């Protein structure tokens, strides 16, 4: 990179690359359009490459420009994380860990992680956000979160995945449903029921696994509702809109209006996995991973 190329040039380039419009990019950057055009032209001259194809009413990234857009965005995000970490150190904090998770992970793994880690490291800031499986992978790839808890079988090569808990499934029925633990024999007893399931977008592999339960039971279910939130499932079941199947880790006697029957006699299991980006350079990451592994195997 030329010595004349500065950090601000990268942000100017990314603004134009994202907007594909010099006026809009200039407004976003609070600089003049002619000034922005000169800066981009200077950047191209310094690098000796063409970043944009300019037409009367259109700006298009060249193949080189497309490559640099992705690389600059990724590396500037990492640089922002480094600067934010430095600010935390300045404020007397050791650093920050950002977690993504599916709802079932919040029942045991995450609370124990937070309690145990904060005992020894009270100066670490944790940021938690519930999101679906695929969103977590996207956020990991963009370095927006440090670790995730997902129910996925396949992940990109740049993402590390380790199974930390294998769950059985549970039926979720209204409290007054005639089927109970005492008279339940198999899932086929419920073939006339409407089912409320996690949306395939939550996890295609998880959904296929649940559908295999029905296949092995000799019927195709009528799926009346799809959702990505366990709380929605419970509320719908409580109000007799259908019944459901969820991982055992989501079952709790504290949930009003529903009852659970564990399906421990079937072969299907669902794995909760820990995932992280191999390129993540957060200095706290390895210590947190070690603690998660310890909790998961206690």
TrEMBL record:
Listed GO MF terms: DNA binding; DNA-binding transcription factor activity
Please give the GO cellular component terms listed in this UniProt entry.
protein-DNA complex
User: Which domain of life does the UniProt lineage start with?
Assistant: Bacteria
A Pfam family for this UniProt protein?
HTH_1
- The answer to whether keyword Disulfide bond applies is no
Query: Which ranges of the sequence are coiled-coil?
Result: none
The HTH lysR-type domain is annotated at: 5-62
Cross-referenced InterPro entries, in alphabetical order?
A: LysR_HTH_N, LysR_subst-bd, WH-like_DNA-bd_sf, WH_DNA-bd_sf
User: What keywords tag this UniProt record?
Assistant: DNA-binding, Transcription, Transcription regulation
Q: Which SUPFAM superfamilies match?
A: Periplasmic binding protein-like II, Winged helix' DNA-binding domain
> Which family does the UniProt entry place this protein in?
Belongs to the LysR transcriptional regulatory family.
Q: What is this protein called?
A: Transcriptional regulator
